[in-house]
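[step 3/7] fold_predict: job queued, chain A
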Amino acid sequence: MLILIIDDSEVFRSRLVEILSANKNRKKIIEVSNILEAKEIMQNLLPDIIITDIRMPGGSGIDLIKEIKINDQTITTMVITNYPEEHYKTEALKAGADYFFDKSNDMEKLLETIDSFNQSKNNYTNV
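[step 4/7] structure written:
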């Protein structure tokens, strides 16, 4: 499984990579700080999961999700942000985000969601 993390906070990215790497089921985690870097990565690699913030240099995570979902509905997209207001959630889900999390309150939910995704993917490939 390939996970792409897009967030302009180096501290947040590092912490999330550390947490996700602790689980040996993770195949590969790539982290970038902005939308332009994310687009470059996605030209060569197709992530299974994209975790993105909303506001970053080079564009919006919501706009990136719109682009992704036009081209590939199979990529699971997750928004994690410090802006958990309802209008951002509505906009993200309308753009095609599969999940929306608040950085301050939903970190455990994010990890549980990734674990369930990973388990279902492993079950599928083991059939």
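[step 5/7] annotate
Confidence is low (pLDDT under 50) at residues 123-127.
The radius of gyration is 14 Å.
exit 0
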